[in-house]
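User: For my dataset I need records formatted as: sequence, then structure tokens, nothing else. Please produce one.
Assistant:
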Amino acid sequence: MEKRNIQISLPVTGVEEWEAVKEPLMTGWLTSGPKVREFEELFAERHKVKHAIAVTSATTALHLALVAVGIQPGDEVIVPAFTWVSTANAVLYCGGTVVFADVDPKTFNLDVHDLERRITNRTKAIIPVHLFGLCADVDAIKRIAPGIPIIEDAACASGAGYKGKPAGSLGDIGCFSFHPRKSITTGEGGMITTNHEGLFELMSMLRNHGASISEEQRHHGPQPYILPDFNLMGFNYRMTDIQGAVGVVQLKKLDRFIDERNQWAAYYHEQLADIPWLRTPKCTPGDHHGWQSYVTFVNESTSPFPRNSIMEKLQERGISTRPGTHAVHMLKYYREKYGIKEDDFPGAKACNDFSMAIPLHNRMTKEDYQYVVNALKSI
């Protein structure tokens, strides 16, 4: 095979995004303003929620969400042990206590049976992660944890769905990412979704230093020279209008991007099915997978080489791979902070050690996908 260079992920941007940023640059409105508002309105409409709030990242979205539901020192928040570290970090920003729950290696999402064992009278929120674009079983979580706020970590799940409902509309608050590895991007950036009027108003103020009205509202109001009141201690988590302009263009492409990813995910399913040591990702019937990543699972008891050696061989052929993500309980900071052993969460440890993301993105060609398949079959 002629060697190719296939990245694990590449964003799709071009002339339309370039043209979109001209307006804020020419008008001089660069901070959060009309383009951010347009992006928020379109995002809320697409995800079937009343409100969307654009922020600087999914991490700051999670932080605002936890502040809004009242997480304080001593409060416990349950998070999956297999996720990006920011899911847990956001709890610590509020002084809360991270309580890990194990994950199901077949879905990479929360194991609801283990989750049930972790709930105490100090549990004040649960953060299910829709990892790699597959929504967590939110209905099951609600059944075993009635009344406990659910904050969806939907960083990977723009456009994904669960039982006919979009990600971000399933719990009390949803938190999305627009990092370049996600299906749509604004460079950095995030979005909060909610149907709760009170939470929306609170998070809107918290995003903007705690100001009672936004900069745009003040600028276009009858007294733009009067500064707003500040009744809360807030944060500067505002998205810029340059990012908002890019977001508007990207969002209009979201469904096409996901349709393309679904097509090539199906191709991988079919072509890789006869590799006995490689398990392809689960697709739950009736749900709409967002396919932010295509994450396989290497069975080292039958594979010709360990997972890391397979990744090295693919890299030598120009194919980028990654572990799906990391088991946060195995990271030094959390291991030492909570005195956790690696084997305390066996599902998460298995995902940490044996998951392998292979390239799936909207800049790949048919020849690229065939090259990846051939390389895997030749190992």
